[in-house]
UniProtKB/TrEMBL annotation:
Signal peptide: none annotated. It catalyses: 7-phospho-2-dehydro-3-deoxy-D-arabino-heptonate = 3-dehydroquinate + phosphate. GO terms for cellular component: cytoplasm. Keywords: Amino-acid biosynthesis, Aromatic amino acid biosynthesis, Cobalt, Cytoplasm, Lyase, Metal-binding, NAD, Nucleotide-binding, Zinc. InterPro entries: Dehydroquinate_synthase, DHQ_synth_AroB, DHQ_synth_fam, DHQS/DOIS_N, DHQS_C. It is found in: Cytoplasm. This is 3-dehydroquinate synthase.
Amino acid sequence: MMKLEVRSKSRHYPVWIGEQLLERCAEYWPSGEKKPGKIVVVTDHHVVSTRKTQIFLETLQQMAETHLLTVTAGEASKSLETAETIYSKLAQLQIRREDMLVAWGGGVVGDLTGFVAATYLRGLRYIQAPTTLLAHDSSLGGKVGVNLKYAKNLVGSFYSPVAIWYDVEMLESLSQRDWASGMAEVIKHAIIGSEKLFTELYQSPYRSYPGGAASITMLSQAMQVKIDVVEADEQEAEWRMVLNAGHTIGHAVEAKSEYRWSHGEAISIGLAVESYLAKRLGLLSEDDKQKIIECLELHGLPTQDKGMAFDELIPYLQLDKKNSQDGWTFALPERIGQVRIIKNIDKDLVRLAWQDNESR
């Protein structure tokens, strides 16, 4: 079992990473938090059928009256419409501010549940219980929200959980594609702040679940990178933008593909393109650029979409929240383990980086 601590301005909370954690989650109840009268677990129709769900619900039931709400799996559920459905069910259950939500799922469930917690009754407590590798990123740091038809995450808030319970045994059942997708965010964290982790992944790639102990060690390193950034800049005044490495291009690719590319796959493509952009700006060496692309591909991730034209991405890039009226903003690698925020980048330079990546 590994315990990390997040000490941000808005809230201090523990991050527990381990095996058989859900069976013993009462032992990891956040210190100082009153037990709720009711717990509402939000999950999706994939996770609800797993053996762990019943175990988790039975354990929670011993602490408080527990209810289960299930949404459709997939990005389409991360919407105002789904949030409104959950609001209505919470009202029917007569949920009060002393009660609690639990996000039991991947990134969509975590973002959606956190958004509902932030907005229902002007704020409910909630716990993140991630079930995917990808959610090691989204569950941490308090960014919650939903999508609009125009772009991802346009409606949201900063609202931290009171705890994260991360039972890595759920990762064993991930498909090869879902595992690889999650590794894109692990590699991103290594690029941002852990040359040591990147070297380990580059030399000994994890193309599938490596077992509990190795997963706990890898995740604790990746999540600590994000914790360090969040503690320095919780509400993205500027520095937290480094966590968007690969995401400016990646979110545009994901949306334009109509989610044919998973989030992690799109971020992988984004990391490759943005590495070329960093190289064009004289920030990143040729050797580090190549290592980033190779590390992604060693983990079974795509780094190109030759069927997509750059001009198709522009409407999505224009909506990126980091941008100003003067130009586009990117979080670009200077070297492996260090990223810099660069503002006012001209779209023609980004087009050239896209073409560089597609023509190799």
